[in-house]
Design goal:
- The protein has 319 residues and is of the alpha+beta class.
- It has 7 helices and 14 strands.
- Strands 5, 6, 7, 8, 9, 10, 11, 12, 13 and 14 form a 10-stranded mixed beta sheet that branches. Strands 1-4-2-3 form a 4-stranded antiparallel beta sheet.
């Protein structure tokens, strides 16, 4: 098992006097999550004034010396695989990947091979010490586009917090059934489908909220090209919200259905038949670099299947 030794020390400042040990550790060692620090305390890897403390709730005094001697464990449940990665950007702190359709982001029930995590571990074995090999968010198997991967623990903690604080702008493009009149915002309760457990749904009562903004890029005869931005990042969120509007995403057989279009020209019908995945692409990411604070923005062109689809769909007749 791959591990990374961690050696940290710091003195409790006056403003943390009489606070809990895990709170003081979070203040001193902010590169690590509260959960990670609590685990190290419980494991006996933390000393206060050279005495081992195993209770996160124990209070500490000002000027006490806290020392951590621990390891970052191997989080991976899968093996590295040599695969071609479309790397849009990479530095010592993060990567931006352009994911193709058909690639699962990370291992799940019974799936431990041929995922993006397998490829990331081959590209950089040090990612084993990060949850999900540094993936900050994910895309569905058949959704294409941009993903953020952290390359060290500091970046992982900061990017994860930025995602929670909605400081990472994510813009998608999609083609949906039907003609929308205008853009808008959907804010709905959201959760697991009550009967189909592999699906998500808009629910009448749920504490979890999903927020999706959408605007019209172009209208076609029977279809609409939308730009979508997310405030929240719930599983299948865009797909579920578009279906909730009664405008499911073209090619999405889970939340929509595969249809016949006898009135369309053969070119359009052929483009629709060639679409083997939902017409949904994560096109743009914008955020501040987690370490330098430099503004970053990345764009990915639509995949050929979506470009060919949009070119083939009949435009509205001019007024």
């Amino acid at each position: 098992m791959t591990t990374e030794p961690i050696h940290l020390s710091g003195t409790v400042p006056d403003n943390m006097a009489n606070k809990r040990l895990d709170q003081a550790c979070q203040h001193l060692f902010s590169d690590y999550s509260r959960n990670q620090l609590q685990n190290w305390i419980k494991a006996g890897s933390v000393t206060v004034d050279n005495l081992t403390v195993t209770k996160p709730r124990q209070t500490v005094k000002a000027d006490s010396l806290i020392t951590i001697n621990a390891t970052l464990e191997d989080h991976s449940v899968c093996e590295p695989e040599d695969m071609s990665l479309d790397i849009v950007f990479e530095d010592s702190d993060l990567m931006i990947i352009n994911k193709p359709s058909g690639l699962i982001c990370h291992p799940g029930a019974g799936i431990h091979e041929h995922t993006l995590v397998n490829g990331l571990l081959f590209h950089d074995p040090r990612l084993r010490t990060l949850p999900r090999a540094g993936l900050i968010h994910r895309l569905d198997k058949d959704t294409t586009g941009l993903l953020i991967i952290a390359k060290n623990n500091m970046s992982y903690q900061k990017l994860s917090q930025m995602m929670r604080d909605r400081l990472i702008s994510r813009q998608y493009h999609t083609v949906v059934h039907g003609k929308l009149i205008s853009g808008g915002t959907l804010r709905t309760p959201y959760g697991r489908h009550p009967t189909a457990r592999t699906k998500m749904a808009v629910l009448s009562h749920s504490e979890r909220i999903a927020i999706t903004h959408y605007r019209i890029v172009e209208r076609f005869q029977g279809f609409t090209h939308l730009e979508v931005t997310l405030d929240t990042g719930r599983t299948h969120q865009i797909r579920v919200h578009m279906a909730h509007l009664r405008h499911p995403i073209l090619g999405d057989t889970t939340y929509g259905k595969r249809c016949e279009y006898p009135n369309l020209e053969e070119k359009a019908q052929s483009a629709i038949r060639s679409l083997t995945h939902q017409a949904l692409h994560a096109k743009k990411l914008s955020f501040a670099h987690p370490i330098s604070g430099e503004p970053l923005s990345f764009e990915s062109p639509l995949p050929d299947t979506m470009t060919e689809l949009i070119d083939a769909l009949p435009r509205e007749n001019p007024c």
